[in-house]
Amino acid sequence: MHAAAQAFDSLAPEYDATFTHSVIGRAQRNAVLQYASEVFTPGSRLLELNCGTGEDALHFAQHGFRVTACDASPAMVMEARKKAANKDMAARLRFYVQPTERIGELLPKQQFGCVFSNFSGLNCVEDLRATAHALAPLLSARAPMLLCVSTRYCLWEIIYYLLRRQPTRALRRCRGSHETNLGGISVPVYYPTSASIERSFSPAFRLVSIKGIGITVPPSYLESWMKEHLTLLRVLERTDNWLQNLPLLRTLGDHMLLHFERSLA
User: Fold this and answer.
1) Which of 18, 43, 60, 241 would you label with 143, given CA atoms 20 to 30 Å apart?
2) How many domains does the chain have?
3) pLDDT in tens, 173-213
């Protein structure tokens, strides 16, 4: 089985409690979905990669999208299907157990109006050129694609772990990749720069914009501290809104949100 799938299978039962419904998880997700509401057209057929427990898929279905959502983890997809059934949204949602690396095999003839991937799912994919090649035939010209990925240089992470005298952890992203332990399973994680992602998706896709996600809002491992400082969190959310478009800072947060558009040629 796909290494990341095995890892997230073990995390699936508690994933919503530990991240989806956390104060940090909600703050960062709200920022992503706010921009998605400005870019995506309700009623479109939306393809979601790395859908996890289906939180975003359910959100889009509730806002009128017809959603096809995929994840490599069978347990994550099972959790997503439970949510859809409980919300009586199954008619607008389709979930598939399918890794991003094989997305072209699942949907070779379907056309979508937009593509979405949230919270670092693509950081588990080594070859983004192959992903771009597989996605290109699935989208019509000028169709938008939003990809939220972990950054290579996260100021919060560097400062936090340096203060804790853990330089290896402080700089783990800066090397471009590392092996992380998820649920007792070693998973390779990649941290491409925005420039390398743009090259991987060119020429089939054109980069429209980059927004910073979690520039001042901290990474999720600071959840316990952040829960005790909710007023500060609201301030940090507003600060992120002011800083998210600044050329340097937008790639120094926990995540960056890349807006691509399917090229005409």
Assistant:
1) 241
2) 1
3) 999 999 998 888 999 999 999 999 999 999 999 999 999 99
